[in-house]
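Ticket #4471: structure output looks truncated?

Reporter: J.K.
Steps to reproduce: submitted the chain below (175 residues) through the standard prediction queue, then opened the result file.
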Amino acid sequence: MPFDTITSETVYRGKAFDVHRDHVKLPNGNITTLDVVVHPGAVTLIPIDSRGQIIFIRQYRHPAGQVLLELPAGTLDEGESPEECALRELREEIGMSAKKLEKVGEFFLAPGYSTESMYIYLATELSPDPLQGDEDEFITVESLTIRDLHDLVSEGVIQDAKSLAALYLAQPYLR
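Returned output as attached by the reporter:
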């Protein structure tokens, strides 16, 4: 049962997202105000190299205040398909192209307050093909075995939700 939007106004325009303030009518007739982060969507990649290792990145995340171990990911540019974004992000973040790109799932990152949909891709048959990365990203690339990965997840070393969800969705492909 969707809520009826009475009014919606943009209260913030940012580099990565906008914020809308919606006044909505609830199914019981009450009216409430909801702030919604409007995001174009993003991709997360599970790149697997020729040795069967998964390529991760380490990147400082200012809101978290620490360097996190994550799967490569990025935001869709205007008019860009998730597949195009995935191939671009692979080149920008790990300097590789993939001959095979397979979608393994998608999910909403935080549907309680955001429109962001995350598309998950398995990237294989990798070859060097670097593309200049974003000027505000400082990334270190790291390859992990599946065994290392299980230990890092269970020990809480991997704390990034999109990476954890992507790895869960990719389990059938990682055996």
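Triage note (M.O.): checked the attachment and the full token line is present. The chain has a mean pLDDT of 94.
Status: closed, working as intended.
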